Amino acid sequence: MTHYLSIKDIDNLSVWVKEARILKSQPKADKNLGANKTICMLFFNNSLRTRLSTQKAAMNLGMDVMVMNFGSEGWTLEYGDGTVMDQNTSEHVKEAAQVVSQFCDIVAIRAFASLTDKEQDEAEVVLNGFKKYAGIPIVNMESSVGHPLQALADAITLEEHNSKERPKVVLSWAPHPKALPHAVANSFVEMMQLQEADFVITHPKGYELNPAITKDVQIEYNQEKALQDADFVYIKNWSSYKEYGKVLNQDPNWMMTKKKLGSAKFMHCLPVRRNVVVEDAVLDSDQSLVIEQANNRTYAAQIVLKKILENL
Amino acid sequence: MTHYLSIKDIDNLSVWVKEARILKSQPKADKNLGANKTICMLFFNNSLRTRLSTQKAAMNLGMDVMVMNFGSEGWTLEYGDGTVMDQNTSEHVKEAAQVVSQFCDIVAIRAFASLTDKEQDEAEVVLNGFKKYAGIPIVNMESSVGHPLQALADAITLEEHNSKERPKVVLSWAPHPKALPHAVANSFVEMMQLQEADFVITHPKGYELNPAITKDVQIEYNQEKALQDADFVYIKNWSSYKEYGKVLNQDPNWMMTKKKLGSAKFMHCLPVRRNVVVEDAVLDSDQSLVIEQANNRTYAAQIVLKKILENL
Amino acid sequence: MTHYLSIKDIDNLSVWVKEARILKSQPKADKNLGANKTICMLFFNNSLRTRLSTQKAAMNLGMDVMVMNFGSEGWTLEYGDGTVMDQNTSEHVKEAAQVVSQFCDIVAIRAFASLTDKEQDEAEVVLNGFKKYAGIPIVNMESSVGHPLQALADAITLEEHNSKERPKVVLSWAPHPKALPHAVANSFVEMMQLQEADFVITHPKGYELNPAITKDVQIEYNQEKALQDADFVYIKNWSSYKEYGKVLNQDPNWMMTKKKLGSAKFMHCLPVRRNVVVEDAVLDSDQSLVIEQANNRTYAAQIVLKKILENL
């Protein structure tokens, strides 16, 4: 394995989840694996969980860590071919990627969707630029299209809390004041397609995710109906994909409540806006798995880094 | 011991000072104590001395360090209970604190007073939010109300330079162009209340610190009188507490001068505005202890972290 | 050796280059040399290569690294003597330098030219302020006047790719939309004056570098003539020195092209604006050494830090 760009880079999800859970029980067991290896974490967007959990995972493996915030500490990169760079971009990703890769063994990158240019977002210019030119393994710390470290942590969390052979898992859209990317939802959908589960997506009309990702996953526009007999409910806002990046709906009736949740477990990637996306009563209940999902971010990152290190 | 939130968390000041001075003489002696332990330093405000000295102290103890600037690298947290988070806050401290605590063993936090809302400042929402929800030891790297790492460094410095059984120590207000918090003055006052000393506070009328903190400490409005026969003069600006956060006075006559200082030692927490708070002649003289105070920040942080690590 | 402020701090360039190349072949060989030593990297300006390569070099030597961005994480320093600091500066370099030096063993500093005040830029107030007051070795990570880590990396790169006893090396100005500093060009010129080479500088009239630096180096205003039979062509934009900081010329005919380059090797310090400073065809050809120059930044920094550590 070389890169971890999407859920598709996992060759066997259930094996990875098992191995991640073993790491969780003894996080420092591989402390020599990363000795004399360096990870460079490049942030084109802000981060809390991803920043700290990935750094922690790298340190658990004995790696050196370098962090760079491209916005405040660097400059704007150019991604186009043949561009006459006489405007706002100061360096081409061709150079930046080749250069950075000489200072480290693995590059982890966070670069969100613009939500203004679908084509450019789907081209994943930052991630793919580094993949093309860096020549070393790239880890996706959330890109325009996916957030596979989050989805892997979600898979670990599901495995820890699931007691059924075929649980019912519902991904439900929720309202939010801002236009948010599709990355978390996309990767969760891709991950669920690798699971034994009854998986349903529910959202208002107009909020269909990219059909190339959802494929034949059942979409149910009636949230109440979708939630019936759910074992796990994953809540997430995203903006419209069709009317790209638009907020079409802020209907508070789509907020998750204790009543709607029933006896299901509640999941969310965080950060979450309380009483907008989900009410306090859910987050403050024992049914909420959000803190454990965040905890598992460390072990998701650690199993990914471990597999990359073993193949360097 | 679990937290280091204020001077009150020191069980025996003179013992801590002694132990800090031993650490100072052999800073790497406990290098294995922090092995496989991580401190996460969260900055809600800028920092130079605190950032570097706390990081150095942690490294001296063999800890891993993660630094996060919430402003430029993260987002705005919510502290209110039951808030409908449809405005500027993106994550509740309930989640942030629980999550961060999973990635480390100790959290150190800097969060200044707003100086606009006394009630909220005194509630110490950031520090207390993390204390309530993090479930791991919290270290105060300057909060609304206190700066106990500074005061502990000041105690070490006093001990190093004091030759009397009962020295006279004066805390004198000084002018400043901006409204500054009360944190440093508050913690210095609390620390002095644990010392054998004649302790006097002097400032213009209207600059009384919180009487719940100063208690029965002598307040002398005549600076000249206060400074008579002083052994140590601690200079610090703060804004009005009564007319909360207001600058009532910028009278340059309150600036500390070589003449006023006499033969006393000069102390200040830094950063200091030269020739506004204190004249060059004082800072550039042998009577100034400010550089040594800053140096002792490392050992103040180190004794605090050491005690926390020993009780983990 | 104590400081690395300019090329003049290299006692024997060819020996340093040789030693750097040995380090390059075994970068972790001196991993114990920096044990229990800390470097503090202070950035007053943004940085990618310098940030990562210097950090990597320090880690290769086993040092602890602390990074501080003065702009976003700190405040504005004062450099003047006797200033009444009632304006925008919050701390004097006298205090800042003395304080920082207590938390580390080496300070590395990046502080660009303002390009508005020649006298102040040439006084190198940041670098010289820290040199004067820190009392520990200072490393220049690009100052107003020089970028000696870059020039040392350039010397390593030249040595790696040169096969002649006396190669012809041309430093050619190129157009750029913004006013850029003279630091890289200055240090390259100073470094070339220590080399066996035919060295020519070419630029439009009005772009003469400081004659105190270029001394008797040949200046040829006709780029075509200058480039004849060149073995190495170093391209760099800089603003006018005479009309300090002005952009006098953006003539695209000065852009480097494959045709002009002939069979010479191409060098640039990066970041570079493609198709403004140099055309794609050059950067994407085998004649470009820019990625190797960036790679050698690590070993330039490492030999400098090694020599400093050996003399601590």
UniProtKB/TrEMBL annotation, chains A, B, C:
The gene it comes from is argF'
InterPro entries cross-referenced by the UniProt entry: ArgF'-like, Asp/Orn_carbamoyltranf_P-bd, Asp/Orn_carbamoylTrfase, Asp/Orn_carbamoylTrfase_sf, Asp_carbamoyltransf_Asp/Orn-bd
Q: What is this protein called?
A: N-succinylornithine carbamoyltransferase
Q: Which reactions appear under catalytic activity for this entry? A: N(2)-succinyl-L-ornithine + carbamoyl phosphate = N(2)-succinyl-L-citrulline + phosphate + H(+)
Q: Which family does it belong to?
A: Belongs to the aspartate/ornithine carbamoyltransferase superfamily. SOTCase family.
- Could you tell me the keywords of this UniProt record? Amino-acid biosynthesis, Arginine biosynthesis, Transferase
UniProt key word DNA-binding: no
EC number, UniProt record: 2.1.3.11
What the protein does comes down to:
Catalyzes the transfer of the carbamoyl group from carbamoyl phosphate to the delta-amino group of N(2)-succinyl-L-ornithine to produce N(2)-succinyl-L-citrulline. Is essential for arginine biosynthesis.
One Gene Ontology term of the molecular function aspect: ornithine carbamoyltransferase activity
Classification via Gene3D superfamilies = Aspartate/ornithine carbamoyltransferase
Phylogenetic placement of the source organism: Bacteria, Pseudomonadati, Bacteroidota, Flavobacteriia, Flavobacteriales
What the entry lists under Pfam families is as follows: OTCace, OTCace_N
